[in-house]
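Quick one: Phosphotransferase from Paractinoplanes ovalisporus, structure tokens please.
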Amino acid sequence: MNEVQVVVAHTERATLRVGDVFLKVDSDRRRTDVEVEAMALAPVPTPEIRWYQPPALAIAAVRGQALGRLGKPSTASPAAWAAAGAAIRALHEAPLPPWPGPNRDETAAELDTECELLVARGLLPADLVARNREIAEVALGPWEPVFAHGDLQISHVFTEDDEVTGIIDWSEAGRGNALHDLATLTLGHEDRLDDLLAGYGTDVDVDVIRAWWSLRSLCASRWLIEHGFDPSAPGCEFDVLRARM
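--- reply ---
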């Protein structure tokens, strides 16, 4: 008999696994609607949708293993990382989805707010926040929107035999920044960036990717703490920020 496994659960959403099926329940139907439409449009392997009855979405598990986990070294081969890079390039070169994504002004405002709160609440030293805020500024330059995943964490890309078998969790997809996707995937795994770019292509500004490492870590840390996650764990967001000092 299959057991119910709680994959993730917090006040915004929960994901359960029963056998080879994942059941996702989201408090905001818009996110689930985006996930369903993005998977239909994306020119890369995505999970099979078993059924969708808001607020619940049932999807099939994908074959293979995740590229890795934040806070732990990735054991995936360089070829697997290159395959992920090629798949992401195909996504970024696809026609734009019909719905918008975050813009520069919204991202800048979020960054300012999160930096203030991180210092005001004593979550991080002011000098650490200030240095990373300075680095993050580079990511706020103009960009051409692409079909972006929007939350391309390392645990969201699955490979088998050095081929991508599935990319999961599309609720943040939209018209976004290509380098944000690349930075999110390599967050805490900066040593694998060259492997990723071997498949994606090297016509990218690595300094902007580094800036996104700071920006994402600054913007995500407070949310993670408030929802039961630990950005201070070894190799996670706080270590990413400290590495910039």
